[in-house]
Amino acid sequence: MFRILFKWGVIFSLVASIPFSGWVWWLNGQVVSRFEGQKWQVPSEVYSAPIILISGAPWKKQDLENLLEETGYRFGRNSQKVGWAARSRTKVSAHLRSYVDHLGFHESERRIFSFQNGRLVIQALNGDEIDEARIEPQRIGFLYGGNTESRQILTYDEIPKPLMAILIAVEDQEFYQHWGISLTGIARAVVVNFTHGSRRQGGSTLTQQLVKNMYLSSERTYTRKLTEVVMSLLLEYHYSKEAIITAYMNEVYLAQLGSSALHGFAAASQHFFGRPVNELNIDEFALLVGMVKGPSLYNPERSPNRAKARRNTVLAVLRDQGRLSDSDYKRLIEQPIRLASKQKERSVYGDYLDLVAMQLSRDFDEATLATKNLRIYTGVDIRAQRAASIAMRRQVAALEQRDPKLKGLQGAMVVTDRLSGQVRAVVGSSGQHYTGFNRALGAVRPIGSLVKPPLYLSALATGRYTWWTEIEDKRLRFNVGGQIWEPENYDRKTHGVVHLYEAMAKSYNLATVSLAQQIGFDRVGDTLRQLGVKRSFTMHPAMALGALELSPFEVSRLYQPIASQGRSSELGVVLAVMDQNDQLLKRFDRKNDVPFTDALLAVTLDGMTKTPKIGTARAAQAAFPNLNFAAKTGTTNQQKDSWYVGITGDYSSIVWLGDDDNVPLSITGSSGAQKVWIDFTKNVNPRSLPDSLPSGAARFNVLDSKFQMAADRCEDKVSLAFILGTEPKESSSCFWPF
């Protein structure tokens, strides 16, 4: 009888083991394919340009301190450790971080910054003066493409050893001894659950937690627990402890940020503390490890007291295990939780990320951008972006308060590097947060008087006109398609014979239309296209006063050849794309094809410097009396649009204000958009345009009343730039005859 029972028992066991073996085989395939493949579906990270600090540039000590704090540097008694800074009454020192970008590896460096007469001086520790110093690129956001997770990937060697030790001490002391499951932990959990009559405790190792996060749901059933155990054994069979702990560090769920899940200690460190994980202190490591037990329960942003208590519990475990002395424990539990300022929230970059996604969509599919953890390096300047966003929000709010009829006023701003054409900042809304409608790209509106500098460039290009040339500002009539069009000046007056530089600086419409008629309206249209207008349009007389409709981004591209004096024509957004192994995948180079000489463009730009001095941008000159810059205001019919272009030594900036419903406003380019530019420029330490002109152009003093060179003693004179060969051939010494 026993033999029969034993025989059938063996047969039954073998038969029953077949589906069990098949199930284990299937689980093994799941474990290996997920772990060997793309373990973490990681969105591409988008980075700013490095912040280049240049000796001799205008800087305030407080501005540099604010910048260092915003980029995650901590101030202490000295700056010996990477990521730390120190300050005295007159100086700032910092140990700048190393970084890798598409240009290679940049070593960490200690630098001392002092401020002499409002100018920055950079020195090495030995006192030698340094030309420049660089603050590493900042991560400004992700390209998800449908992914809603936020991660940063660490290799095993990049994991801070104290963090690893604390995690193992608190979550799984037997991690290096067990094979994926802890029999003592399971036994303890069984006793607790049996005692309470329900499932109160699990006996999960770090390996089991990783399996649960990577492969399984969070349901609490014994079937799921059995699956977890088997998969944990398989994971330990196939992979080393180093691979498993590395995966855990990158996979662990630590917080929910709206619709995005925060995974991994590196991403959590940046979010909560604004610093790389390797720069955290023991108490900060303890806080993050404490959150593993309950990410929502112990979130320091939502429940700071509960999070602090949990952190102190972790520190107590370290003390009890002999990893912390009593004195260190007492000191650390008294430390307040210092979270990163919420001003660092990256929503300010939402409009810029639109441009990044638009450019990359031509070369990378959405799935690649959403999952491959590419590193995208852009030209955004975090100081300029912040200053532009704040200026737009602040000035629109002030205008709305001054005139309630302006409620709902919207705006957009595009800031480019004057020389390279790299886009440094984009603002697509006057609201505080990213709205989803990017007016910098999508608000296509008449550009008004911003068309005038390109029009005057057309005249200068003929060689028959200079800035001194006289033209009559008089009323004109045009028959356009059977309709009579009679342009008017803003003040409804005529101003007689004026010089070209006066007509543009004071934005005289009648003189401008007269000039366009003389050189030919089609020629003006050709110039606009040559400067970069790609949108189709039909040229007619009203185009000479800005009936042309463009977005702020397109206006910025139109002005780039003039602002750069021919050094750049296209706007740049993405510089390069690298993979997670720092291998360059693509570098974005731009064409520079401007069919105008550097001399002509420089002379045009120089003429625009008259607008702040004598024209419609005098308020900006009053705000910056010692700054030499170029500008142009623009206002469209019925004051539906307020425009401003400002060009300093560093930036070319376009500002637009208007209503989405295209209704008349009570502001002009001078009283609206100009205010935004002034606010922005006050916060970016502006530098003047250079005095020098390129080969083929020169600046001369000319009599205002007669086309002759003026001696220094002459009072009736004006300084104007000329294309060589078009300057006056005669001179005046301004002596009175006796």
Gist of the model:
The chain has 738 residues and is α+β, with helices and mostly antiparallel strands.
Write up what this structure looks like.
- There is one protein chain.
- With 738 residues, this protein is of the alpha+beta class.
- It is built from 24 helices and 33 strands.
- The strands form 11 sheets. It has a 6-stranded mixed sheet with strand order 3-4-5-8-9-10, with helices on one face. The chain has a 5-stranded mixed sheet with strand order 12-1-16-25-26. The chain has a 5-stranded antiparallel sheet with strand order 18-17-29-28-27, sandwiched between helices.
- A hairpin with a 5-residue loop joins strand 25 and strand 26 (584-587).
- The protein is elongated.
- The termini are far apart.
